[in-house]
Predict the 3D structure of the following.
Amino acid sequence: MDPETKQMHDILTKLKGVDKTTKIVAERAERDIDLNVAINQKITKDSVSVQNYRIDIVLQKFGDKQKRFYNICEDERILHKDIALFETAMGIVKNLMLNKHKKVEDLLKSDLDYNNALYEVYMYKTKAKKAINEDIMIAKMSAAQNRLHSAKQQILQKL
């Protein structure tokens, strides 16, 4: 597969993941009227719009890989950027629509915790592969994975 075709394939694969998440959110919307409002959205290849909010999908370098991050815009103004999880971005938009600013701040903090733990996992995994104090790096990576899981659970509980 030539590099351009592979890049397009990778983008489409990532967008399928976004589509899967959107379907999960739609199923939850049947039981949650607030989420039902949020689900009335417009989806393009690089953004999701809900009322006057837009979640832009931004590919950024993360270690030696590409990772999707999300910027939340109101009209054309960026309100929050570099959100690590799509679930967080959707939760923030929902709470912005409901004027629940404390919940927005809580989600942002948990998302930052998730992003930091994700970077630590990557860093320790890379160091372990280079055999720099491998046992210590694996132990630290395991602790970071626990923080990563915990941060994601906190986000999901706040949705």
Notes: The CA atoms of residues 113 and 151 lie 6 Å apart. Residues 3-158 form one domain. The chain has one domain: 3-158. The helical segments are 3-29, 33-39, 86-97, 101-129, 134-158.
